[in-house]
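Quick one: structure for this chain?
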Amino acid sequence: MAEPAGTSGTQDVEVVVAHRQRVTLRVGDVFLKIDGDPSHADIEVRAMALAPIPTPAVRWHEPPVLAIAAVPGTALGLLGEPSAASPTAWAATGAAVRRLHDAPLPPWPGRRLDDVAAELDRECAWLLANAVLPAEVIRRNREIAGAALRPRKPVFVHGDLQITHVFVDGDEVTGVIDWSEAAPGDAMADLATLTLGHEERLDDLLAGYGAGADREAIRAWWSLRSLVASRWLIEHGFDPDAPGCEFDVLRARMREP
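Got it. Here's what it folds into:
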């Protein structure tokens, strides 16, 4: 007779995320990432080996599957919810991000500024055509986002540094996950992504990050990321209009001078 699920010798399988491009499963203390584009896992493995901050251990890699170990601690927070992490934990996160940005560049190319600008224009056109937000909200945020499209010295960026991708235990950073978009890029984009929807924690983050942060560029990236992410989120079953998420970030810009 087979043992019931959850008894000795078996482990539950948890679907962490699933959409047309990627599925991530958790089995015990191992995450299995299945990606339709094998280059994503290749970049992730290489980036984690180079990053001078805590990252998950790679258990094995057999395309299209990458198996990585769970990192200890809990996520710094969730988009749409207040972060329970302490100011010291946020400062420690800022210090870890600074170590990454100060590290030697990874030896593969990042996105060209022209490509970022073209994507921004394309996504704004889609948002306007589909009337998912008032036109004035889209146009105002497109204007703000233009400040992100400035010449800048590239640094080693994570590329998708969402608040759920940083894990802390108390006031210590224990791991940063999901490195498939790591590349040379704009440091302010990482800082903006991490504080998207958590703008009140920017000062705590920058207390650990140190000098050189450009608040205008961070603000621009809040708009840019929210504009370019919205269609993808909608088409993959996520809701950018949930409280505290991308649409609220865009609306908040309308209340600023």
